[in-house]
Amino acid sequence: MVITRNGLVLGATAVTLTTIAVTSLGIHSQGQALFKESPKELVDEVWQIVQRQYVDGTFNKLDWQAVRREYLSKSYTTKQEAYKSIREMLKKLDDPYTRFMDPQEFKNMQVDTSGELIGIGITISQDEKTKQLVVIAPIEDTPAFKAGILAKDKILTIDGKSTKGMDTNQAVSLIRGEPNTSVNLSVERNGQQKDFKIKRAVIEIHPVKYSQKQTPAGNTGYIRLNQFSANAAKEMQSAIKDLESKKVAGYVLDLRGNPGGLLFASVDIARMFINSGTIVSTIPRQGEAEKEVANGRALTNKPLVVLVDKGSASASEILSGALQDNKRAVIVGTQTFGKGLVQSVRPLDDGSGLAVTIAKYHTPSGKDINKHGIDPDVKVDLTGKQQLWLRDRDKLATLADPQFAKAIEVLGKEIAGKGTTRAEK
């Protein structure tokens, strides 16, 4: 597999949408070992990639050379033995985002970013401190979403099997399956256990939904972006052009529950709103930042309000952080998920793949949002009951939606002031 521009993804480890963070700091296939010679060569290949690229030169205070000696001293007769050792070796880094994918898992990851998914429609991550599996967000209009799974739900069991000590690879294997089969999830929410039986499905995802709304702020363009998949930028471009033709006075961009996706989708979309300035900086082990910048081709300079919540992660945080720091938009909602680490995904010689943390990213103003997230300019919390209530499509993005109502109030002020404090001229 050649990792192309569209194959670079950014996000949190996921189940049906494998949003593993990747940056343009690609790793090229130099000096790859030939797996056909020996399974041990694959173990060493993975070690070498981490040795060259891992973001922390101390390897999280681990003697990485000693790890190599330990695992190359073993004998391997099958691929499965090599895979097991690679997972053990990477686990020593204590980094849930650096992970090995066997050929099927790697294939799933490639499919997941294409816009068509097979599964239940949730993204998950492993809490870096507790190691507990946590839902980042359900993908809108998927089986998990319809069943009532929410962001921050802690996954306790999968088909009756405890997730204690389980990594995301194992969870992926258990949750995935054939369409029309079911998986049982038990989650903890606000100290209470909730059980769900969810039927798997083939999920075709159109990431952008938009409409023209007559609101107290005037003729408003509403755009909901569910994830940063391969077709997100193209669909966003079409939405903005259509709404511009309808002479909207301003925009509400809804990133609530958006778990991330392709890095360059977030950069391309930021360029549709920002005419000049930095979008994101990635900082590798060497400490020299690589910047993505606007290209002077913004599609609109009209006032913009962005809606975020705790399910807005990674690529969503890059976009909202870029819009906030460039004073291009007002951010409304709640604190976002908080993932500011960047991984590179690369194929290995036997068809498997490796995601390794190679950098952290900062917003244009230099903020490190890892484990913190983006703080909204205007905070609007929702109760648990309101979160469930807003799953009703008739209420979402109406004035009965407290966060949307506040966004419209803020947008009205921006339009009245002609966007002088936020929108570019």
In short:
The chain has 425 residues and is an alpha+beta fold.
What is the topology?
Layout: E1 9-11, H1 39-53, H2 64-72, H3 79-91, E2 99-101, H4 103-112, E3 116-119, E4 122-126, E5 133-138, H5 143-147, E6 154-158, E7 161-162, H6 168-175, E8 182-189, E9 192-199, E10 201-204, E11 208-215, E12 218-225, H7 232-245, E13 250-254, E14 260-262, H8 263-273, E15 278-284, E16 290-293, E17 304-308, H9 315-325, E18 330-333, E19 341-347, E20 353-362, E21 378-379, H10 384-389, H11 402-416
Helix pairs in contact: 1-2, 1-3, 7-8, 8-9
Q: Per the principal axes of the C-alpha atoms, what is the gross shape?
A: globular
Strand fraction: 25-35%
Task: Specify the CATH class of the largest domain.
Answer: Alpha Beta
Radius of gyration: 22 Å
Number of strands: 21
Structural class assignment:
alpha+beta
Helix content estimate = 25-40%
The end-to-end distance, rounded to whole angstroms, is: 43 Å
Describe the fold and architecture.
This protein is of the alpha+beta class and 425 residues long. The chain contains eleven helices and 21 strands. The strands form six sheets. It has a six-stranded mixed β-sheet, sandwiched between helices. Strands 2, 15, 16, 19 and 20 form a five-stranded antiparallel β-sheet that branches. Strands 7-6-8-9 form a four-stranded antiparallel β-sheet. Helix 1 packs antiparallel against helix 2, helix 1 packs parallel to helix 3 and helix 8 runs parallel beside helix 9. The protein is globular. 50% of the residues are buried.
